[in-house]
Amino acid sequence: MRKLLAEFFGTYWLVFGGCGSALFAAGIPDLGIGFAGVSLAFGLTVLTMAYAVGHISGGHFNPAVTLGLWAGGRFEAKDILPYILSQCVGAIAAAGTLFFILSGKDGFAIDNTKAGAFASNGFDAFSPQGYSMTAAFTAEFVLTLFFLLIILGATDKLANGKFAGVAIGLGLTLIHLISIPITNTSVNPARSLSQAVFAGGEPLSQVWLFWAAPILGAIVAGFIYKNLLQDKS
């Protein structure tokens, strides 16, 4: 139960901090934090929670990470479903909190006919810069693959584990710097689901891609690291 609570709170913080920065602070004229600020916010959520609760649950906060660690031989199959459920509940709870806060602003409404509605992910007309489904799938697959390689390498028994959280947090920051214009950046199915549930409409109908591509990328990364990169001596 402690592990599941850690995953709940870690994923909650990731969505609240990352998506919250996009919703509250990114678009303010002259003073807004923009894409770079949102990218840093997502990285900081993972970095801070990796040190806060990572020692309890392993600090996944992401269904793709859980499955990638399983593929890499670092996580037991019996714990996959409880972890993913905890992550999704935490993400949706955070999205609910964001919705409640935003509802306190006059004129608030989610326009789910536009890209990035309620910080949702999307492709084609729902990509921030109009990238196709194929382009979005490729970006999410490749970026999640490299995110898992960073995680698996930084947490390897031969690595300096004290700095794993820094490497992982900066890795997620870089991923967002690359891909916010493409998909609004997912690499995390729970994060995508939570925002799409509240946005509804086309963002919700497109959420399948933001489960399939990150999970496939993570699993491929797990097998690559386990079989090609890991020192087995």
From TrEMBL:
Major subcellular site: membrane
Bilayer topology annotation: Multi-pass membrane protein
Cellular compartments annotated: Membrane
InterPro entries named in the record: Aquaporin-like, Aquaporin_transptr, MIP, MIP_CS
Residues annotated as signal peptide: none
CDD domains the UniProt entry points to: MIP (cd00333)
Spans traversing the lipid bilayer: 12-28, 34-53, 80-102, 130-151, 163-187, 207-225
SUPFAM superfamilies recorded: Aquaporin-like
Keywords carried by this UniProt record: Membrane, Transmembrane, Transmembrane helix, Transport
Family to which this protein belongs: Belongs to the MIP/aquaporin (TC 1.A.8) family.
NCBIfam families: MIP, PRK05420.1
Protein name listed in UniProt: Aquaporin Z
